[in-house]
Amino acid sequence: MRRFLPLLFVVLGLFGHVFMQARPAWKKVSTGGGGRDFASYYYAAEVALDGGDPYDTEAMTAKAVAERTRKSVHPFFYPPPFLFAVAWVGPVSLQTAYETWFFVNELLLIGSLALGVWAYGVPLWAAALLLWTWSPIPDNAWMGQANLLALVPALAGLAIAEKRPVAGGVLVGVAAMLKMSPALFLGWWLIRRNWRAVAAACGAAVALSGAALSMVGWRATLRFYTEVLPGFSKGDYHGLKVPISLEANHSIPDLYNRLFPDPGPFLSATAQHASTATILLLLALCAWRARTATRPAAMLGALTVLMVATPVYTYEHHLVFLVIAMGTAAGAVGEVGAARWARGERASVVGLWILLVGAWFFLAWPLTWLREVQAALPEVLRPLCRESKTVAEAALFGWLLGLGGRQREPGGG
Q1: Rounded CA gap, 191 and 171, in Å?
Q2: Which residues contact 375 (CB under 8 A, 6 or more apart)?
Q3: pTM of the predicted model as reported, rounded to 2 decimal places
Q4: By the 8 A CB rule, do 193 and 228 touch?
Q5: Would you tell me how many other CB atoms lie within 10 Å of the CB of residue 380?
Q6: Which residues contact 184 (CB under 8 A, 6 or more apart)?
Q7: Looking at the predicted structure, is the pLDDT value of residue 82 above 60?
């Protein structure tokens, strides 16, 4: 029977995913119209292919209105090379491209979990459960987001960089040019003095930016790096009209935004400084723990949590980045728990699993559940419920940091 367990986990995971996550998400994609967030990528590519500026939101909206698909379009604020990933949309309608993107995300999801099992210690049972329960997966899918597009090359690059630093660096450089946040992983290589991987990542980023000139031109490229990118730290996402204090925001800057609010649409100076200090402190803690790291996968998981929680906006779909980090934590806890169980430390093992399951639950529970519970709670408990996912992020970060930077348990694998 044990011989067939891996196959059983794969089958059950895929079966549950199709019916519990992919099917409901597909219904929203196929009937929703408007392309959700994917419309920003679509119309940015359309404008660029016509020789225009993809960071010109008015030009994007004009195309959507002319095609009668949307009344407005969210601004595009990704690096210019990202447009290579959606350059194929030119002759395709918005709805067809949006539906195609859904299946691209499904393939990327399977690829990320396969990499997690292969290189990051994610047990097959955990991968199967994540396919069933991780609510950011369908959120990412029906919103037409590009998180997994950046996660897969980052995971692949980090997995091979020890033995193939140039190839690994190039892959992470590609990921950083799809979304800027994976550039944080270069810190791991700096700590480990993998200079070739860092150089390859930087070289890939420069090369891709140069290649993107053929599609967006130098003016639009300069606009991104001098106008769009600098605004991220204060919450100015190129004119994105979404309040930082939205209840679905689970970031470190949002916590400080609630403590030190600004009457305007951006972070107050105090919130910016406090966020920066906190993030630098957490990065320093990661660097210190990395010196004794015995589980590199867990340390990379902790960095992934920081990558997700440090931007001004951390929405439900961004939490899909944590799917491998959570699986890695499950594998590490299983290893530690097995060693302690063998030594008779049963209560300790139960405690480990209770904490892990708690973090898993609060990161995975759907936003609709959170809102219903929050509405039913007394006023004094509502803030804690609202920030439950942020607290769970902190717990997962601490868990991975502790497991990654400690000596292996006696009797452990």
Answers
A1: 19
A2: none
A3: 0.94
A4: no
A5: 7
A6: 303, 306, 307, 310
A7: yes
